[in-house]
Amino acid sequence: MDFTDVSLTALRVLRAVAEQGTFTAAAASLGYTQSAVSRQIAAIERGAGTELLERRRDGARLTPAGRVVMRRATVVLDEIAATARELSGLPEQTGTVRLGWVPSAGADLLPHALAALRDSDPGLDVVSREGGTPALVRAVRAGTLDLALLASAPPFRAPDNESPPLTLQTLTERPLRLAVPATHPLARGEYVDVADLRGQRWIAGSSAGEDRLMGVWPGLDERPEIAHTARDWLAKLHLVAAGCGLTTLPASLIRAVPPGVRVLPVRGGPQEQRRLLLAHLPAPPSPAMTRVATALRAAALDTRTPGPSS
């Protein structure tokens, strides 16, 4: 084993594969070819003298040895970033917390918490990025995120089956809502019956697979007609306002609803609750992480009563 010649590029590539879950996605995120990613991974595995990634049909996951290397690599890469920051003359910070968040947390809770932290703890640096729950879980496992805000739906299973389990805290649990054009016949009442959702046109997610149905009311007994796809929640809501279809809406986004949209509960069928979870590795959090977590919990309490629908 000779780890002394491992490059920073190889460490960054390993981090990208751990976060993205596949060599292809890692290559796209870095702007590399897939063969270049494979060469960097082969080089770092030669230096380690063992496999660092488990190649599986559904992607790549860190092996136990890979988790050790990733934990150390994260320290190295963070120190390099801190050195660059210091050389650029930025003021010293009291701590940095890397926070991941699902899109539904970005409209209200996250800005609320960050604004409070800016006032109460100006020396604390929070670096955040948006992602889907599976990608954020991989990043927490890889050690490249300290905290992550995750989405969870019934039956509220653990976000992955890796060991040891992540430490999870429920920040909010709210019912899923329906966003309807204000001119739509369904917008005339105070709620929508689930039976009336048959034959409707939907605005759903833009990903392949199960995520593509995000935006369609769960459990419909028909193949839904998806009229439009959009990744961004605000784009979905503006399409609803334009009369292009219906979409589902986490209650945490009600404050972001544009004019021309009514947000209504749906009656009939099973309860559709949605949770927002705060996740981190099962180790004592740093003081900086604790301060960010406290701000997120306070923001969750302050925003738990949504504003009125349009």
Number of domains: 3
* CATH-level-4 superfamily name of the largest domain: Periplasmic binding protein-like II
Biggest sheet layout:
5 strands, mixed
CATH architecture annotation of the largest domain? 3-Layer(aba) Sandwich
N-to-C SSE series?
HHHEEHEHEHEEEEEEHEEEEH
The fraction of residues assigned to DSSP E strands is: 15-25%
Mean pLDDT equals 86
Report the total helices. 8
Proportion in helices: 25-40%
What value does the Rg take, in angstroms?
22 Å
The CATH class of the largest domain is identified as Alpha Beta
CATH topology of the largest domain: D-Maltodextrin-Binding Protein, domain 2
As laid out across the biggest beta sheet, the strand order is 4-3-5-14-6
The total beta strand count reads 14
Keywords:
single chain; 310 residues; alpha/beta; Arc Repressor Mutant, subunit A; D-Maltodextrin-Binding Protein, domain 2; 5-stranded mixed beta sheet; 3-stranded antiparallel beta sheet; 14 strands
Question: Could you explain the architecture of this structure?
Answer:
The protein is an alpha/beta fold and 310 residues long. 35% of the residues lie in helices and 23% in strands. It folds into 3 domains: 8-73, Winged helix-like DNA-binding domain superfamily/Winged helix DNA-binding domain (Arc Repressor Mutant, subunit A); 95-173 and 274-302, Periplasmic binding protein-like II (D-Maltodextrin-Binding Protein, domain 2), CATH 3.40.190; 177-271, D-Maltodextrin-Binding Protein, domain 2 (3-Layer(aba) Sandwich), CATH 3.40.190.10. The chain has a 5-stranded mixed β-sheet with strand order 4-3-5-14-6, with helices on both faces. Strands 11-7-12 form a 3-stranded antiparallel β-sheet. Strand 1 (53-56) and strand 2 (59-62) form a beta hairpin. Helix 1 packs across helix 3 (34-48) and helix 5 (109-120) crosses helix 8 (287-302). Residues 208-212 and 305-310 have low confidence and may be disordered.
